[in-house]
Write a structure and sequence with these properties.
alpha/beta, eight-stranded mixed sheet, binds S-adenosylmethionine, Rossmann fold, 13 helices, 10 strands, S-adenosyl-L-methionine, about 20% strand, RNA binding
Length: about 290
């Protein structure tokens, strides 16, 4: 049974890390005109009301999107941040610094989809799916109710020459790490040029290491690993950071992510006693 609801976490530090990498990847890929099919295997409900009981209970967005918004004048010199802030502005009508809504990955991608592109998203939670479909398709892409890991495999190869997949599970049970590794291996066997983004949480139990090890040994493609450590690990529970793998990363994306997120790191010092850290490395290099 699915119990995870992203409304408790929307706009948190992990979403900022994940969504900036997503936008940076799309903008790089769109430097060529050939069509892209975007897949979002775990879509969520698409739009999040930050004034509702879920968001207010955790207040996580205050340490994510709100911190970024406070630094907008410094960040918005970069096109990826400009897209992020204009997506926020489109759904927040109040004064510049007050957030009411947060657009999830389907909305962020839909904003950038070009005439020639395709956009398919999957959601398995019945209520989240219903809320997603209640929005207009130009804000969400084409929505499919079902398991996104099986669903994406059924759609391969896409009709477009290029493919970008975001795989962003909640990892509610530990088997999901293995299921993600198996799905990514199959995607890369069928579409060896696919660009795939895989999000994972940094938790003391470190279950993501199984996922990393499997992908490093099973894939032939280059894999960039980007981790945003917003606080120190302590105790046995609690997420302390956000991880993202970029398989077949677009050219220069590593340096671009660094430039995008570096100005945000000091903002975590007053909250957690030390600046956040961005740690990036190659899990597999080209020609390894
Ligand atoms: N990608 C979204 C974003 O960035 O805005 C957030 C997604 S949230 C972390 C994960 C979502 O996956 C939840 O809404 C959950 O209901 C859904 N989910 C869980 N298992 C799934 C599955 N096997 N297939 C599709 N969706 C699933």
């Amino acid at each position: 049974m699915l119990s995870y609801q992203h409304g408790y976490h929307a706009g948190n530090a992990a979403d900022v890390h994940k969504h900036l990498i997503l936008l940076a990847t799309i903008l790089r890929m769109q430097q060529k005109s050939s069509a892209i099919h975007y897949f979002d295997t775990h879509a969520g409900k698409g739009m999040y009301d930050l004034r509702d009981a879920q968001a207010q209970k955790t207040g996580e967005y205050l340490h994510g999107v709100q911190l970024a918004l406070n630094l907008r004048d410094d960040l918005a010199t970069q096109p990826q941040w400009q897209h992020y802030f204009s997506a926020l502005a489109a759904v927040n009508q109040g004064d510049d610094n007050t957030l009411e809504f947060y657009p999830g990955s389907p909305a962020l991608v839909a904003d950038l989809t070009r005439e020639q592109d395709r956009h398919t998203v999957f959601e398995l939670h019945p209520q989240e799916h219903q809320l997603l479909t209640a929005q207009e398709s130009r804000q969400t892409g084409y929505v499919i109710y079902g398991d996104g890991l099986q669903g994406i495999l059924q759609q391969l190869p896409p009709k477009t020459p290029r493919l970008l997949a975001l795989i962003d599970p909640a990892y509610e049970n530990k088997d999901e790490y293995a299921a993600v590794a198996t799905t990514v291996s199959k995607i890369m066997q069928r579409c060896r040029h696919a660009v795939v983004l895989v999000w994972y949480p940094l938790l003391p139990a470190a279950r993501h290491e199984e996922l990393l090890q499997r992908l490093a040994t099973e894939l032939q493609q280059p894999i960039l690993q980007s981790e945003f450590h917003y606080k120190a690990m302590s105790g046995e529970r609690g997420m302390y950071g956000s991880g993202m793998l970029v398989i077949n990363p677009p050219w220069q994306i590593e340096a671009e992510i660094e430039t995008l997120l570096a100005p945000l790191l000091p903002a975590y010092a007053p909250i957690y006693g030390a600046p956040a850290q961005l740690q990036q490395t190659w899990l597999r290099k080209e020609n390894d």
